[in-house]
Every structure is written in C-alpha cells, then in structure tokens.
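User: quick one, sequence for these tokens?
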C-alpha cells in the first residue's frame, strides 16, 4: 500500500500541509523540520503519485525549450531520440517541451530562438552551443538576469552561468584517442586530425586533449595538425585526398566528429586501408560497419541517448522540484570499441 502524506505527517508530528511544503521545497518551514520530514519520506519509501505530480505541474505551467544544432548529423539524430523520450516523460506530468532543430552551426539562429522562447515565457532551455561571444553573454543574461536556467549538452561553454553540462569530457576523450594512436603506430610516423566545425567547443577540446597527450607521451610522432571538414563527408573525402597526396607515408588519422565516411572512402580509393590507422568517434551505424570490417581501428563513444534525455529531465527536476544537478558537469562514460567488442 502506498504511503500517504498524512502518514508521513503523523510520523513527523506535523501537519499534512507542512509535509507538502517540505517535500515540494515551498519554504515557510524550519530547515531542521524539512530535513526530518524528507528523511522520514525516504525511509518509508514515499513516492508522489503520478496524478498528483501532473496536477502540480499543470499549475506551474512549466515550459522547457531545446535547441539542437548540427541536427542533420547521425550522432545528433541519436541525441534526438533521447530528447524525444524525455519530452514524452516530462509532458506526461503536465510540462510542455519544444525542440528546435538547426542544421549546421548557427549561433545567430540559436540566439533568435532563445529570445523568442523568453518572449513566450519558457522556464528553462537546454541547448547544444557553439563558440560565440554573443551567445556566451546571452547564456549569462538568461541565467542571472531573467532567472531562466540553461543546460548545455554535447558541447559546453564552461565559463558561463549555465546550470550544468551533460556530455563527454572532451579533453579526456582526446587524450584517450592519443593513447590509442600512440600504441597502434608504435609511437612513430606522421598523423593528422580531421575535425568538423572550428566553432564547436567539444571538437576543439578533443583536438586539444589529443595534441597535448601526443606531444607529452609520444614525442617521436610527427603531428601534422588539424583540418576542418565542417561535418561534411564530401569535404572530408577531398581533404583526405589532398593529405594522402602530400603525405604518402601518413600513419594515422584522428577524426574528432563527423566526416568518417568521406575519410574512409578516400582511403579505400587510394588502397590505404591497411596502411593508415583510424580512430573516430560515436557508435552510429555507418561507423560500426566500418569498425566491423576493419576500416576503422577504434571508436570512442559518448552516450548520445543520455545526453538528450538528461538535458530535459535535469531541467524538469530543477523547475518542478527546485532540485539542482549533483554537479556542474554530468559527464557520460568514455567507451572504447574495436571490431572484437562492438
């Protein structure tokens, strides 16, 4: 039988209204009393009813907005699956969630959508940001002046007043890739990075972590730097064609984001699959197939579903229960796959 608020009130020696205020963080109660009530509720396994939560949510009229950049990329399509699952869950409690998709990187459009959400009285926003000074200032303004909490996911703008970041520790991911690259090339030869958009903070942090670890741990490797393919397979293919022509003895390529199909197509044309080691990111279908057939040596995963799902749900908890995330950084696991454990 479910525990009721009145039963908790009887155990705590307070009124039912006091229990309601304590469990819903509504104030007007002594801190020590609130703590005692919450401990009793936890000890007896109290769970608020779904109907009750939905009614309370309807009264609050909570609106959550999501802005998803690079929506056309395979990885972000997986993030969208998590977003849609969280949208269904939050809306089942009476909240409303609106997801805006942007193809490519367009901070101007992000800013326009944020301003529109403010005018439409959205209570919180989750977004995948890009490096842009105006966007940085606006995140701070929303968080501090408008009291509209912002959660970033997939990529982060760390030095802002955002509530928290959900995603991979990109620097450590890059360091992980460097360690793998150093081992499979025996710490020798020429390597290069192919990245997406220069404005994507996550991709830049991966490259920074990779470069730093290569220089420290594998000084005999000749790191040729970074090229940008803008998450476009055709551009990635043409860049790789040029690289192979200029550096015929290339030993490794680290792909920080999208463009994997283009790189691999170039290698196949040049008959270089067995000669050049490839480390890429994300467990999307095309990448898994290339890993399985030996074209890619390693894939590094970052849990797309969780990034999407948690970005909405943490806002939900904040707006409904006034519960802050446990940390400013909700890092997802860094998972390494090769063709034997995919």
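Assistant:
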């Amino acid at each position: 039988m479910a525990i009721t608020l009145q039963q908790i009130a009887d155990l705590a020696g307070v009124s039912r209204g006091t229990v309601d205020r304590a469990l819903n963080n509504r104030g007007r109660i002594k801190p020590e009393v609130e703590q005692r009530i919450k401990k009793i509720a936890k000890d007896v396994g109290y769970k608020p009813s779904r109907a009750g939560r939905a009614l309370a949510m309807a009264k609050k009229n909570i609106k959550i907005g999501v802005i998803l950049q690079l929506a056309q990329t395979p990885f972000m399509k997986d993030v969208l699956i998590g977003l849609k699952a969280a949208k269904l869950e939050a809306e089942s409690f009476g909240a409303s969630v609106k997801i805006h998709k942007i193809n490519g990187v367009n901070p101007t459009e992000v800013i326009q959508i944020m301003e529109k959400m403010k005018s439409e009285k959205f209570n919180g926003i989750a977004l995948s940001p890009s490096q842009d000074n105006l966007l940085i200032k606006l995140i701070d303004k929303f968080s501090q002046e408008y009291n509209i909490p912002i959660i970033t996911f997939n990529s982060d703008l760390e030095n802002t007043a955002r509530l928290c970041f959900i995603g991979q520790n990109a620097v450590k991911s890059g360091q992980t890739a460097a360690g793998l690259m150093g081992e499979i090339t025996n710490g020798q030869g020429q390597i290069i990075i192919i990245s997406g958009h220069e404005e994507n903070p996550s991709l830049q942090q991966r490259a920074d972590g990779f470069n730093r670890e290569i220089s420290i741990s594998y000084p005999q490797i000749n790191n040729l730097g970074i090229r940008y393919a803008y998450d476009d397979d055709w551009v990635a293919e043409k860049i790789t064609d040029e690289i192979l022509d200029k550096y015929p003895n290339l030993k490794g390529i680290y792909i920080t984001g999208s463009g994997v199909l283009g790189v691999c197509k170039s290698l196949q044309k040049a008959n270089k699959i067995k000669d050049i080691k490839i480390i890429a990111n994300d467990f999307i279908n095309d990448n898994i197939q290339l890993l399985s057939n030996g074209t890619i040596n390693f894939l590094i995963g970052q849990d797309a579903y969780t990034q999407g799902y948690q970005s909405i749900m943490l806002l939900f908890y904040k707006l409904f229960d006034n519960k802050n995330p446990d940390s400013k950084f909700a890092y997802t696991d860094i998972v390494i796959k090769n063709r034997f454990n995919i």
